């Protein structure tokens, strides 16, 4: 318990320092609920404790080659994880893994509308994350993307218990679409990409405010100030 308190202190200190430097949105935790952190240091997320079961509807957008969070959800709660990522090489990498039957993979992207997107390649060869943000180069692949309403219809669901998205800059328009469509989502985990791809901290603050106004309250922010966990009140 002591070590956990020390870790939490330094985590909060780092987060506040990033906000002071203007590197993270100037927002605070808005609700206190017990939560757990699942997955690796790189790919892990915080979710509310004891809120999922085998019947929960879970969607995970942007998985890359770190699926530790998705596997932890399956191991802890027996849920089926619907995982999405059109990034080149992800499909081939998954075929080399020993995956549980509850892990369902779909090779397309989440967007604010059904469309074919240009997915721009990372600048570094050892990076896997692609982005829809136009880098002014011809280094891209075209991928199929769908809005959340379409995806829910295809999967036969009307609401979501847990939605995670790490979609490299596409989250801002997707959040607008989610709020306009009034899709019911109990927990929403978002990685914002301020200070990347030309995205400003103010854009993330605006998106968080819009979620707040729709009833989503923050219960955890990562120490880096990029990963945000919301619960719908």
Keywords:
alpha/beta, seven-stranded mixed beta sheet, Rossmann fold, three-stranded mixed beta sheet, 27% strand, 233 residues
Number of E-state strands = 12
CATH class: Alpha Beta
Task: Please state the second-level CATH architecture.
Answer: 3-Layer(aba) Sandwich
Number of helices: 6
GO molecular function, one term: methyltransferase activity
Protein name: Methyltransferase FkbM family
Domain Methyltransferase FkbM: 80-218
InterPro entries: FkbM_mtfrase, METTL24, SAM-dependent_MTases_sf
Provide a descriptive summary of the structure in words.
- Residues 80-218 form the Methyltransferase FkbM domain.
- GO terms for molecular function: methyltransferase activity.
- Keywords: Methyltransferase, Transferase.
- The chain has six helices and twelve strands.
- α5 (171-181) packs parallel to α6.
- The protein has helices at residues 2-20, 68-77, 90-95, 148-155, 171-181, 201-213; strands at 35-38, 45-48, 57-61, 80-84, 103-106, 109-110, 115-120, 140-146, 159-165, 184-191, 216-221, 227-232.
- α5 links the parallel β9 (159-165) and β10.
- It is globular.
- 34% of the residues are buried.
- It is of the alpha/beta class and 233 residues long.
- The longest helix is centred in the first third of the chain and has 19 residues, at 2-20.
- It starts with a helix and ends with a strand.
- The mean pLDDT is 91.
- The strands form three sheets. The chain has a seven-stranded mixed β-sheet with strand order 5-4-3-9-10-12-11.
- It has one domain: Vaccinia Virus protein VP39 (Rossmann fold, 3-Layer(aba) Sandwich), CATH 3.40.50.150.
């Amino acid at each position: 318990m002591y070590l956990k308190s020390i870790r939490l202190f330094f985590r909060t200190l780092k987060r506040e320092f990033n906000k002071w430097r203007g590197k993270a949105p100037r927002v605070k935790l808005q609700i206190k609920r017990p939560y757990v952190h699942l997955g690796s240091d790189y790919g892990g997320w915080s979710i509310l404790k004891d809120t999922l079961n085998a019947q929960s509807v879970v969607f995970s957008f942007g998985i890359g080659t770190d699926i530790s969070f998705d596997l932890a959800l399956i191991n802890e709660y027996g849920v089926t994880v619907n995982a999405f990522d059109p990034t080149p090489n992800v499909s081939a990498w998954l075929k080399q893994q020993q995956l549980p039957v509850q892990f369902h993979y779909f090779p397309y992207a989440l967007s604010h509308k059904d469309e074919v997107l240009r997915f721009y390649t990372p600048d570094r060869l050892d990076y896997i994350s692609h982005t829809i943000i136009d880098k002014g180069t011809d280094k891209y692949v075209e991928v199929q993307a769908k809005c959340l309403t379409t995806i829910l219809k295809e999967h036969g669901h009307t609401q979501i218990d847990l939605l995670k998205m790490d979609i490299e800059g596409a989250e801002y328009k997707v959040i607008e679409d989610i709020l306009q469509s009034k899709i019911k989502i109990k927990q929403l985990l978002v990685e914002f990409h301020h200070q990347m791809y030309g995205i400003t901290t103010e854009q993330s603050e605006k998106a968080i405010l819009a979620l707040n106004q729709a009833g989503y309250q923050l219960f955890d922010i990562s120490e880096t100030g990029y990963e945000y966990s919301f619960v719908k009140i």
